[in-house]
Amino acid sequence: MSSWVSRATASHHAQLITTAIVSGIVVGGAVLGFQKARRMYRVAEMKAAIPDIDEEHHATRLTEYGAASNAFAPSNEDKRSMALAARARKGDYDDDLILEQLARNRVFLTDEGLQKLRSAFVIVVGCGGVGSHATAALARSGCSKLRLIDFDQVTLSSLNRHAVATLADVGTPKVHCIRRRLEQITPWTHFECRNELFSEVNAPAQLAAMNGQEPDFVIDAIDNIDSKVALLNYCYKNKIRVISSMGAGCKSDPTKIFIGDISASTDDPLSKSTRRKLRALGVKDGIPVVFSTEKPGPGKAQLLPLPDEEFAKGTVGELGVLPDFRVRILPVLGTMPAIFGLAVANHVILEIAGYPHDYLPAKGREKMYDSILGSLQGAEERLARSYGFDSQGLKIPITQDDVGYLVEEVYHGRSVISDLATRLCLMRWNKPSEDFIDKRTPGQKNSLLQMKDLVVMTKEEAAKHEKEVLKGDKKPEDLYDEKVLNTVRLKMEEEERFARFR
HSE of 483 in the Cβ direction (CA atoms, 13 Å)? Predict the structure, then answer.
């Protein structure tokens, strides 16, 4: 090493190079040191500029409810209400006063029914417009154990539909806002507030027992489809009673609101997507829902597509507060979430109290599905014979559930050709290949028919289609106009996309 240094310094050229390298290192170190010192100075200057938190800077404090500021300090009345609620939950509240407050419910539900409601434990998932009204109605009616789950905070735009929020609650988690306000009405109610997002992973903990008591009912007031499906599927599979609120957005007609089975809910995009995904998980019915049959029309509110300038900002998914949550403002008339929420609460109260109730019947269409399935079986057997196959014992891989899914979810109970809703059947759209019968298993013959091959027609239309397309020489393009052909193409593509959920 020393000999290399000696040789390097003996050369004038090498000396210049060595000097330049050393100088560069020294200058670089000085620049970096200066930059670091400047950063440290700026951080110290910034910290020094932050005022100490004192009474003159109350807006920097968080309230006990997690509000963003303490600009609206609790009033003396609020403080008295909180103190009274704390004592009431410990039993320091006259039961005669509670019964007097619940007197109208008591004579309606009877002592036995009211006692069931007072002992019930209900979980409300989603505490916005629908959930807040449902919670308020339950608390006012005597339900004394409520778990509230919601990740969101009260905003100014929440105030057109939220049951209890005020300006003072803006920035406060919705679950705590509801508890704070309802404690002033029913101080004996035990609220368990979970300011968190419901998820399938956390469902066992979020829907767990409270002090050893399993939930008597769960209310789904979520407006995110994936979370809604996860909640309903969990409750269904674990035999927890649940009722779900479908979409109140863009709705305005209170006379079109119904309570029925999810299989009967119609004319609601949220309900449609929820039904589809639940069917894919094996849940086709057995869940009561509140839904509206109101149809969109000229002049009515609708959810418009995002403008091009929003897409230009980046990935649409990055525009939302959370991944997979909607990024557009839903048009909502403030009265409709309240009606949905009160209808949900009404159902829960009647169910828990054992009060008799008989809603408008849901669609009993199982017999129709059986008939359509039998008609499809016959059509496949006739087609097999026309190809020279022995059709005796032929099986088709389509079930009654598949028929219901295609008729209701894909084709909305109408013929794709004429839009008629009577005398419906399922029929192949295109002529099959020569080998559409599988005989590889000895003693068994089955059609290779797939759901994406089928469309809904009337029986008269199906007879003509079978004769001219499936057994004849014509193609669908020879019989139908461009509108029908495009509709079928889009429906088949839609079904193929949803097939992955099954």
Answer: 4
The position carrying tokens 């017999």 is 367
Residue 125, number of CB atoms within 10 A of its CB = 25
Q: Which of 463, 241, 252, 213 is nearest to 352 (CA)?
A: 241
- pLDDT, position 316: 44
Task: State the amino acid at position 197 in one-letter form.
Answer: L
Q: Is 476 exposed, middle or buried (0-12, 13-18, 19+ CB in 10 A)?
A: middle
Residues 199 and 227 sit within 8 Å (Cβ to Cβ): yes
Listed as ranges, residues in the chain with pLDDT below 50 are 4-5, 8, 55, 57-71, 311, 316-322, 324-325, 327, 362
Q: Residue 438: which of 400, 471, 386, 389 has the closest Cα?
A: 389
CA Rg, the chain, in Å?
Answer: 33
pLDDT value, residue 455: 95
Q: How far apart are CA 25 and CA 37, in angstroms?
A: 18
- Count Cα neighbours of 438 within 13 Å in the Cβ-side half-sphere: 10
Is residue 128 within 8 A of residue 150, CB to CB? The reply is yes
pLDDT at 441: 84
- In contact, 388 and 378? CB cutoff 8 Å: no
Residue 72 in 3-state DSSP?
coil
* pLDDT, position 43: 64
Strands (E), 297-453: 394-395, 424-428, 437-438, 445-447
Spatial CA neighbour of 141 closest among 99, 79, 85, 196: 99
For the chain, the residue count is 502
In the chain, CATH 3.40.50.720 covers 76-353
Residue found under tokens 């009060």: 355
Q: What is the pLDDT of residue 70?
A: 47
pLDDT at 41: 64
Asked if residue 266 lies in contact with residue 294, where contact means CB atoms within 8 angstroms, the answer is no
Q: What is the DSSP letter of 466?
A: I
CATH code linked to domain 76-353 = 3.40.50.720
pLDDT in tens, 395-423: 999 998 889 888 877 888 899 999 998 89
Mapping DSSP onto H, E and C, the string for 432-499 reads CCCCCEECCCCCCEEECCCHHHEEEEEHHHHHHHHHHHHCCCCCHHHHCCHHHHHHHHHHHHHHHHHH
The reported pLDDT for the residue numbered 34 is: 63
